Amino acid sequence: MNRASPLLAIGLLAACSGRQSPLAPAGDQAETLHQLFLLALAVCGIVYLVVVAALVWSLMRRGRDEDRDGAMRGLNRGLWATGIGIVLGVTILIVGSFLADRALFATRGEDALEVRITGHQWWWRIEYRVGGTARWIETANELHLPRGRTTRVLLGSADVIHSFWVPNVAGKIDMIPGRRNVLDLTPRQSGWFRGQCGEYCGMQHAHMAFDVKVEEPAQFEAWLARQSRMARPVGDSRGMHGQAVFARTCSACHAVRGTTASGRAGPDLTHVGARRSIAAGTITMSRGALQGWIAQPQALKPGTSMPAIPLAPADADAVAHYLAGLR
């Protein structure tokens, strides 16, 4: 076991990086929190070493003859040194926390892209404000951010308390029913990251995730322009059949802009085929995964609000084909 301990430690440290790790900051806010963490780690590490050193010193002196007055003078000096160390350590942490708070709110007065995110059991409604207008573009379970530009996220909940957390980009903040909390995100590194609900919210809390893509501003604007368009017209008979079945069985809960489907109970599916995953990060996107989700959602994500749809295999295949084409 002792020989295996270093290997185990190395294996655990391997989890300190990646697309869902606060120890691999990819944004200004995450970098600020990372620096505060390193400061706290350094202060606590120094305190630990001092305590261990004092313990070793006391053990080495045990049993030595020493007059009582001399021992009391040493004890008083030790208490004064301990008190000064505590005050110094706490002061450093307070100042560091104050500066970190200032840095986290430094962008609050700047112009920013507005995104409204609402937590549901167990998925995410995501809406982008178009310029300074009152128009919002809705999507779900996938957040796109422009690199180097601040995005102001307005967070709320439709049911229970959730918590929005993208560890690589920023810290987490609660999403409370009836209230909008605000979080600024300023990513500096392009790539895919993973967000997660950070507050236990029920049976499928662990499967309430979302994909985050940080991309160059021009690429982001092109993506947002595509998201603003209506659903692409169906171009084949199987897709037309799938659209008809979808309108008959799914449109009460889901919306597809440009069609008669306008439900609000579930995620907007206007461009669902272009997303990286379905069911809030539970399953990788594919036509087969869509068909499985339509047929047996409770088997894939027990407790989800999505009911099993009693469709004939040919109808389920057509609906999956239709949805996969909504890109």
Automatic annotation (TrEMBL):
GO-annotated biological processes: ATP synthesis coupled electron transport
GO molecular function: copper ion binding; cytochrome-c oxidase activity; heme binding; oxidoreductase activity
Reaction(s) catalysed by this chain's protein: 4 Fe(II)-[cytochrome c] + O2 + 8 H(+)(in) = 4 Fe(III)-[cytochrome c] + 2 H2O + 4 H(+)(out)
Domain Cytochrome c: 237-327
TM region positions: 36-57, 78-100
Family, similarity comment: Belongs to the cytochrome c oxidase subunit 2 family.
Protein name: cytochrome-c oxidase
Source organism of this protein record: Novosphingobium silvae
